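stuck on this fold:
=====
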Amino acid sequence: MNPNPEFGKLKVFGITIGNDDIHLRTHRIDSQLRMMTYYLCTWSIRNFSSIQNACSEGFQKEGGFNCKVRLSVNQEEVKIIVECIFYYYYVINCCVTISTDSGTVLFHKTFDNAAAPCNNQFKDTVSITGEDFQKLKELPNDTFVLTCRITRSGVDDAILKYNPINFAINISTYLKTLEADLKKYSGAFSKQKVNLRVGGATEVVNKAVLCSRSPVFEKMFGNEMREHENNTVIITDIKMPVLRALVSFLCSGLLPDCDFDFLCDLYYAANKYGIWELHQ
């Protein structure tokens, strides 16, 4: 594989599980110019029509970001499940392509988390069934290539799109502090989600992130309070757009572009929950 010259060091990750006719290659590529990271899972699948039931999985685990791509094949369906878990603000874009071994594209689909990049989790499924599945079974040499490319946008990209006030915040220091604080939480607690409800709307956020940045939330979920039992917090004095901006800051140290009134509401929320980095 010859990556574009703009890419940095090429690293191999992952494992192969399943049928001998399914071969997996996985790579992690850092783009030094675009401040992005690419994760590539490429499967070469032979004797497709004879595969009864098989699966293969590639994964990447590194500080603050876990990524897993799972392929399953049976007599009725080809399924790709992409799952990413992360503590920081990341925009995740996925592209799944199926092509013949000569390079002709048979299937292509893209999806991303641009609508909710602060949820700390991204999961989606691509399923090939029906006519598309039959086309794969009718290929002359019974072989095809499936590629899943995951693009992770770095924080530096997000800074360019956000409020200039972010330049007054040391993003690097904030993220290093967040990462260090998250190490205090392990096991099931670090994976739990909290529902923050405002009226009929709900914002889902990682519990460890909440507790590591806010002493109010830490006390709330550390004691036998109602919120501790059902992982749900009802909020009546903060608007949902303000709450979402607050959650975005907790995860990334970044603020959205906003007017003075919005900043005043955000200041109130930061003061209420003891988020001093934002309050100051």
Notes: Residues 1-18, 155-168 have pLDDT under 50 and may be disordered. The chain is about 30% helix and 40% strand.
